[in-house]
Design a protein that fits this description.
With 304 residues, the protein is α/β, with parallel strands linked by helices. 41% of the residues lie in helices and 19% in strands. It has a single domain, classed as Alpha/Beta hydrolase fold, catalytic domain (Rossmann fold), CATH 3.40.50. An eight-stranded mixed β-sheet has the order 1-2-4-3-5-6-7-8, sandwiched between helices. The N and C termini lie far apart (61 Å).
């Protein structure tokens, strides 16, 4: 074999999917006091259906999981004839390039409710995996939790911008999060979100005194017998429940406590579905959790 190859470098770019259209832009948030990177992938038929609106599915941790979610969305939209899915637009929320190196610790600022305290066992887990230097930043962002402001950013700043730019179906917005993002999905639901009707909480990091328990009781009192249609899909991994990491076992135990509350004291209009992913751990279960949520909450034959 003879000859030589030449490589060229561009300032920016990515491998493109011929059936996918993705846009990136950044949004300044007055509520959070920070800037966010937003990636939006549109369904295949978006350009040929000028009168149709599509559900917006918002997903947190967009830097890590956004590209994966976009690829899965493409397969659902184009090829899955066995479990057909409603076409939707994927809105991945992440950090800008400047913030990305701090994403592992800064994300907790957005996901944790104000006033929450970090369990000691969580500090030990973070120290063992991110290193002692990251523990201080992690704990600082945890203690400064702004989940209320992050939710206000999505509802009052980002969602109106998405509606301005794209054709959005008003009554089918979804929110998916994993780990700390799963906790945030539960926070959004128990806060009585004004825009979301479909919630996905994968491997939610629920701790013993999480405010969502009190928030759910308050929501029950506020709603009374008024039914507000919504769908919550909970996913956990078998190797979290039966694994060696204490943090994940306790997270699942506390998630089950919350699930027990949902079943014993149901919220009118709320449908709750679940799945346990066999063979998956906390680190490996994200893709399966996302797929499970989409299939549960965006199936074409689903009944709201």
């Amino acid at each position: 074999m003879t000859g030589s190859s030449k490589a060229s470098t561009t300032e920016s770019g990515r491998l493109g999917n011929p059936e996918s259209f993705t846009e990136y832009f950044e949004v300044d948030s007055l509520h959070v006091g920070d800037r966010f990177g937003i990636s939006v992938s549109l369904p295949r038929l978006y350009g040929t259906t000028p009168d149709a609106g599509y559900p917006a599915l918002y997903a947190t941790d967009g830097n890590v999981y956004g590209p994966i979610a976009e690829a899965v969305m493409f397969d659902f939209d184009v090829f899955d004839a066995v479990v057909p899915i409603e076409p939707f637009m994927q809105v991945s929320i992440g950090f800008t390039a400047k913030q990305t190196p701090q994403a592992n610790t800064l994300r907790m600022r957005n996901f944790v409710a104000p006033g929450a305290s970090i369990p000691e066992y969580m500090q030990a887990h973070v120290s063992a995996r991110l290193g002692p230097a990251a523990v201080a930043a992690f704990c600082e962002n945890f203690a400064a939790g702004r989940a209320d402001r992050f939710l206000a950013f999505i509802e009052e700043e980002l969602h109106p911008e998405i509606c301005r730019r794209y054709r959005v179906q008003a009554d089918a917005a979804g929110l998916f999060g994993y780990s700390g993002g799963g906790l945030f999905s539960l926070y959004a639901m128990t806060s009585g979100s004004r825009i979301f009707s479909r919630y996905g909480a994968g491997a939610a990091g629920v701790f013993p005194d999480a405010p969502l328990f009190k928030m759910y009781e308050q929501l029950l009192q506020q709603r009374g017998n008024t039914a507000v249609p919504a769908h919550l899909h909970l996913v956990t991994n078998a190797k979290e429940l039966f694994g060696s990491a204490r943090l994940y076992r306790l997270n699942v135990i506390n998630l089950l406590r919350f699930y027990d509350t949902l079943i014993e004291r149901p919220l009118h209009g709320l449908q709750v579905t679940t799945e346990v992913l066999t063979g998956e751990s906390h680190s490996s279960g994200w893709l399966g959790a996302y797929r499970s949520f989409v299939r549960a909450c965006y199936r074409k034959d689903r009944v709201s």
